[in-house]
Amino acid sequence: QKEVEQNSGPLSVPEGAIASLNCTYSDRGSQSFFWYRQYSGKSPELIMFIYSNGDKEDGRFTAQLNKASQYVSLLIRDSQPSDSATYLCAVISGGDDKIIFGKGTRLHILP
Amino acid sequence: DTGVSQDPRHKITKRGQNVTFRCDPISEHNRLYWYRQTLGQGPEFLTYFQNEAQLEKSRLLSDRFSAERPKGSFSTLEIQRTEQGDSAMYLCASSLASLTDTQYFGPGTRLTVL
Predict the structure, then answer these.
(1) How far apart are CA A66 and CA A52, in angstroms?
(2) Cross-chain Cβ contact B48/A98 below 8 Å
(3) A79 Cβ neighbours under 8 A, 6+ residues apart
(4) Which one, A33, A44, A83, B52, has least CB within 10 Å?
């Protein structure tokens, strides 16, 4: 069973600080990785896509991928109350033509 | 609003009844996905279409579930003989052509089976 693991949280971070969200995956053959944000009662929306080892930055968001450690993370700089949401890590596993989601980490930005 | 619509938004049914949900994707999108999400869980893949062809179906999906995408446009998901365990949010998403293209999710259909 291919798995994507996330700490369910909640993760509480003061406004203006860096929020760090982590995800591990079981399938070493995984090639593509996503971070989705889901507000309460809403559908997921894609915020980052990464497939190469290293960092990828987009505005206040940085995704970090380490395939050797089977680890992907999301950093949110200058956290805002509007960043309070559940963040879902998702992976395209090798040999599968589908995306596997983790359970998500609830992030709470403290004003 | 992502441009993906789903109908109905809420459905309450009694155990044993059949239900059908509809998804209208973004018009130029070739791929259409169905997911199921329960409280505290991430979306769980059910099936997907490339145009009108159903290319992958989750092994977790029982024979009570069926999906169609006639003419490669809208899609329907039918659940026969509903069970209480089917209560969930059913999400539809569409993307341009491949799994790495951004998937845009609809608002979902919340199913409650009494």
Answers:
(1) 8
(2) yes
(3) A13, A14, A15, A16, A17, A18, A19, A109
(4) B52
* CA dihedral sign of residues B92, B95, B97, B98: negative
Q: What tens digit of pLDDT does each residue of B36-49 get?
A: 999 999 999 999 99
Convert the pLDDT of each residue in A4-40 to its tens digit: 999 989 999 999 999 999 999 999 888 899 999 999 9
Chain A contact set for B106 (CB, 8 A): 43
H-state helical runs in A37-97: none
Spatial distance between the Cα atoms of A47 and B53, rounded to a whole number of angstroms: 29
DSSP string, A13-42: EETTS-EEEEEEES-TT--EEEEEEE-TTS
